[in-house]
Design a protein that fits this description.
Elements (H helix, E strand, L loop, with lengths): L2 E2 L69 E7 L3 H12 L4 E5 L12 E2 L1 H10 L10 E3 L1 E6 L2 E6 L10 E3 L2 H15 L2 E4 L1 E8 L5 E8 L33 E10 L6 H5 L10 E10 L7 E5 L3 E2 L2 E2 L3 E6 L4 E9 L10 H9 L18 E6 L8 E2 L2 E3 L15 H19 L4 H9 L1 H23 L2 H11 L3 H12 L9 H12 L4
Parallel strand pairs: 2-3, 2-12, 3-9, 6-14, 12-21
Antiparallel strand pairs: 1-9, 4-8, 5-8, 6-7, 10-11, 11-12, 13-18, 13-19, 14-17, 15-16, 17-18, 20-21
Amino acid sequence: MTHEVPPSHPPADAAAPRGGDPGRAPAPGPGPEERPATAPAVPGSTSGPATTGPATTASPATGSAATGPAAPMEADVIVVGAGPAGSATACYLARAGVDVLVLEKACFPREKVCGDGLTPRAVKALVGMGVPVDEQDGWVRNKGLRIIGGGVRLELPWPELSSYPGYGLVRTRLDFDEILARTAQKAGARLLEGVTVTGPVLDENGRIVGVRTRSSAGEEGPAEGGPRRAGDSPGVAGGRPPGPAEPERTYRARVIVAADGNSSRLSLAMGLSKRDDRPLGVAVRTYYTSPRHDDDYLESWLDLWDGQRLLPGYGWIFGMGDGTSNVGLGLLNTSSSFGNVDYRDLLRRWLAGMPAEWGYLEENRTQPVRGAALPMGFNRTPHYTRGLLLAGDAGGMVNPFNGEGIAYALESGELAAQVIAQALARPDAAGAERVLMAYPQALKAAYGGYYTLGRRFVQAIGNPKVMQFATKHGMPRPALMRFTLKLLANLTESRGGDAADRVIHALSKMTPAA
């Protein structure tokens, strides 16, 4: 049953055990174009002028999930997806006084495939949203990155900068995303869980003015990263029972944000496909009980072997602080081996070489091995078209250097919110459209040159000989590796800084934007 969750609904306890296989229900493709008889005025649309007042004065529901009032069918902005990008967009829009409705197909808490490690860049974005990040709030801090490769073990503390905090965090995605969604609700955003967007609503000019939805609260799709398996059972993540089927509903808004992840079916329905000239990663991960669960460094392994071949990508071990370690590996499509490797088997063979006392054994595994794609370097463009903005993974905003996506999802959500709030304040449709059309350029200014450098980097390490040379000759040089950490994690002073910061900024500015 479609339901609106009150903002007082508490997030899952960080120490709660991880649940079974999560579900993901695939949304069907868009149906025939639907033209509402009375769509709201949309910025940039020739069907009517943009209005500056809110589409509705409704406030977030305060009733229970089962009995709370139904969400109004209109809003200033609809955000599709309540992951980091969607929740950040909604949070900042709500704080700007914009009526924003978030549609999330799952029900919290829900799992996502992720390494669960957050760099200082992501920490800064969380603090900016007002998310409490103290250890007493369930977060596990880390001091930096430990790199293992080429026979060398090197610990690199996070750089001390005025622009970013000097620590990272770890938190499972089982409750991380819910914390962000509840933060957006507290800011005033409306959230509907268990709602699958099935396609766009278009006006006579082909501009998106709303979305069609169906209830997904009584179903559970395949476990993320693979087809439904024997033993998978229907039901709702978080233990809510299936509800009765509901008819398709239509929600309308002046601006729509696609924050629906890598697959982004809404973007596809609007004709925005992935770009084949941009890098793509694949990551698989699972959890093991381990005495290393309280490690205060994120650990990255550069020696990732498949037989006699050194593959691009890296393995990781992140202590979760709850008795388990998140263990996984990521690979890039720049290798000729991409698509021809059994990633789960590779993970098992890599872990077979670990000391037995670390506990990374099959009998200590607590979760299935799950996989996900990492859309990198703006692999879906344009980031704005006909009333639709893309944020986070939907726009391919994962950092090509290190596979980090959460920081850029949060930052792009904030940027999208700033652009939308300014557009909605313009008194005429033409002015509003000019503001919205500036969003792709703002993203290019922020990340374009850096992402182009990242694309060249992953193309280079796609050659096993280059990767082996870099590991062998780079790892024994701590000063070079400290520079590499700053480059790969995108952690530099925005102004001034040391010589490494200035070199990285110069390279990014000289490189054509992605």
